[in-house]
Amino acid sequence: MITTRTIESIIPPPPPHFVGDGFRVHNFFPGQIAGGMKRTDPFLLLDYGSPHVFTPTIHRRGVDVHPHRGFETVTFAFKGSVAHRDNSGGGGIIGEGDIQWMTAGSGILHEEYHSDEFAETGGLFHMAQLWVNLPAKHKMTTPSYQAIENTSIPVYEGQKIEVSVIAGEYQGIKGVASTFTDIRMLLVQFEEGGEFDYEFPSSYTAIALNIEGEIGIQDHNFPTHHCALFANDGEKLSMKGMTSAKALILIGKPIREEIVAYGPFVMNTREEIAKAYEDYSTGLFGAL
Question: 58-88 burial, b if ≥16 CB within 10 A, otherwise e?
Answer without folding.
Answer: eeebbbeeebbbbbbbbbbbbbbbbbbebbb
